[in-house]
Amino acid sequence: MPAPSPLPSYLYKILDTAPPSPLPARLPLSDLDRNDGFLHLSTSTQVPGTADSYFSDFTELWLLKIEYKVLADGTDADGEVKKGAEIKWEEVGRGCFAHFYGGDLGKGNVGEVVKVEKVGTWGKSLDLEW
């Protein structure tokens, strides 16, 4: 499945606990990301469904908002372009998701941290038009 067209302006990493503030140079990987060998990311339209599917028991989530171009350029957590760091669009279930290989997230590539509280379902609580 190909990348969406047009490409998104932002990608999001969903966290079930608050990240350190201020963001460190390198955030720890989730068990899922470590086991799969890449960072799982979502577009703004995918976040509500991903949250409902994988985080339904949580009442608050934190979203790391990352400029697409920053990761597409291979910018690592420290803000430096890392050789081999790249986004791959891969089919998962019924959608095509962005996966970031060869790099990490941290203060050098995350633009914003947003706390979101659940009201009803995540689909109803998340309206990301940023």
UniProtKB/TrEMBL annotation:
Signal peptide: none annotated. It holds the Pfam family DUF952. PANTHER family: BLR1139 PROTEIN, DUF952 DOMAIN-CONTAINING PROTEIN. SUPFAM superfamilies: ADP-ribosylation. InterPro entries: DUF952. This is DUF952-domain-containing protein. It comes from the Eukaryota.
